[in-house]
Amino acid sequence: MKHMKKILLIYLVLWSYVATAEDGHGLWLRYTPISQEAVLTEYLQTVDHFEVHTSSETGLLIHEELTNGLTSMYQQELVATEGLEHSLQVCKTDHSLVKGLGIDAGIKEQIGAEGFLLRSVQREGKSFLLLTANTDIGLYYGTFHLLRLIQTEQSLVGLDVVEYPRIETRMLNHWDNLDRSSERGYAGFAIWDWHRLPDYLDPIYAEYARANASIGINAMVPVNVNSNALILTPMYLEKVKALADLLRPYGIKMYLTARFSAPSEIGGLATSDPLDPGVAAWWADKAKEIYSYVPDFGGFLVKANSEGQPGPHDYHRNHAEGANMLAKALAPHGGQVIWRAFVYSEENPVDRHMQANDQFVPLDGQFDDNVSIQVKNGAIDFQPREPFHPLFSAMKETRLAMEFQITQEYLGQATQLVYLGTYYEECLDAQIGIKKATVSEVIEGQSNEQEHSVIAGVANIGTDRNWTGHLFGQSNWYAFGRLAWNPDLGADAIADEWIAMAFDHDPQVHATIKDIMMHSREAAVNYMTPLGLHHLMATGHHYGPGPWVSELGRPEWNPVYYHRADSFGIGFDRTAKGSGAVLQYQKSIAKKFGNLKSCPEEYLLWFHHVSWDYEMQSGRTLWDEMGLHYQSGVDEVRRFASQWESLEGKVDARRFEEVQMLLTIHEKEAVWWKDASLLYFQTISNRPFPAEIETPKGSLAHYKRLRFPYAPGIKPQW
Ligand code: BDP
């Protein structure tokens, strides 16, 4: 009997170990024990119990989060007594507790509908921490803020934090299809199980909602921009309603993609012409119907007249006519239209870089108040590096929204470790050439006095156990959310937060991972597309290099269209003498980018066609410099791999091994990009590689033969 008990105990210990073994599923919400006794003592003297004075569904979530978070990090039960001393008091600003504390009206106004105040308070000889907000969701965000301070082991003494989001709508765009495939998704299938909705609510939905709330994401679109009108039919709206109901207490609003041809496809109308009164009435009825299912429905995200999607041009109407018709259908219910500016016409011979400005700038000022134009960070397509999109400085009377890609379609998919915080920051901080305004100020609405603001990220979430395929993909989801909340936070500080929460507290682990992350994106640019090269990926799946591709139906689908390598040199002349795209920027920017000497070298071949022998700032020729960039990208990845090796035994085994295996693939892929690109360009430059370049592993013919018919994330053909 004694023996049996012992076995049972061992079994239980082992089981609890296996059950809690790290597999990445816990994201940045692992709530690991405080690492230092002194820090724990300080925390216990500040908060040893809490009271939540709101009983809404969100209030229950707050209660649960604080209980789990604090007991897990403190490794002890919380004090059971009530009372102010050493407590955390969570209550709305209209609660009696707050009334006597003299919190000025200015703060209440500043924190608005989603912000919060976290303040150390002394009252009647008692000291406690007050978390207050105008709304329950503000309290929920404040809860995560406080837990983050504890997770990252910062002092809580004398806290006085006023936080509120700088961008109103912070949304994820899932490019997920109704059959659960995910366009440009690299983490398994889509998490949305449409077939079993509405009755089966997969527990992953609540986990998803909580993770997003923890970083302030407050909106989502569960379906692909290459949209399917079925989502607007009653059968699917039932499912949409179930999801929206579930997401609501977490502060997340549901939006849907709207297929422009829906009136003809599912409505039985002969046309989807936006100026046809029958079509407008159909959309007005459809909006009413959607709001009957989802009373706080956010609105429509629309990809129109781009890459084969239907749109107003099909009826000789412009984007404003299309967007405004939908806006009018949504306006009575408070809904928004988010209309994408990622457009390029299949028939238009003009530099693809210029087509969005050409189509949208003449419409500046013509969009209804509830329309945002969602602009990708750069003018081509989420490339490893792009200068900011010229639309951000060209439409002063229109609300402009940012679209970033979190899923790494062009940045290593789920096999490469690439931290995108630095990418987002580079774009948000770019000066647009109007006074000192930056891209982030345009989106926030500061520079064009817009009341509403929107930022969207194309999600990288799927059914993989660790959510994002590559463990470090989580840091990109995290960084997007944090920058959406506050675009000035900085990629560096965000990396610090994420590492401190996603890994255990070990200074060497932290410093090593941070060094890898902070260099990872530049490394990717170097081994893929250095010095302003872009769009050199292979066809369809976009996995790996294909700079030689030249046979696709449309010129701008082919990499050769973008690099333009010839016996003289390489690069796309977008100066006034070339396509003229640079002139779409404000004068000072156009002057800087348009002049070979002042153009930053990182954008050189984006804007200029440059001789192979051109002397770079380093004194080397362009050809040699290009080669060295490719090589340095590869060298960096090798450095990352050996840095990661040094963490063996310091990072939990499963996550360590997963990242280790992926870094092996990463290195192979970096070498592949470098070899294939340089071998190909050499056939045109006819120059020897500089001595520092490693001998290519395969031949150009070998690289050209590679095929990946089953690579993940391929765009569906329908
Ligand atoms: C491209 C993707 C394609 C998307 C498109 C878009 O390859 O799958 O549909 O962007 O943003 O980068 O609409």
From TrEMBL:
SUPFAM superfamilies: (Trans)glycosidases (SSF51445), beta-N-acetylhexosaminidase-like domain (SSF55545)
UniProt catalytic activity: Hydrolysis of (1->2)-alpha-D-(4-O-methyl)glucuronosyl links in the main chain of hardwood xylans
Domain Alpha glucuronidase N-terminal: 27-146
GO terms for MF: alpha-glucuronidase activity; xylan alpha-1,2-glucuronosidase activity
Gene3D superfamilies referenced in this protein's UniProt entry, alphabetically: Alpha-glucuronidase, C-terminal domain, Chitobiase/beta-hexosaminidase domain 2-like, Glycosidases
Glycosyl hydrolase family 67 catalytic domain: residues covered: 150-467
Top-rank lineage group of the source organism: Bacteria
Active site per UniProt: E307 (proton donor), D381 (proton acceptor), E409 (proton acceptor)
Family the entry assigns: Belongs to the glycosyl hydrolase 67 family.
Protein name, entry field: Xylan alpha-1,2-glucuronidase
Organism: Reichenbachiella agariperforans
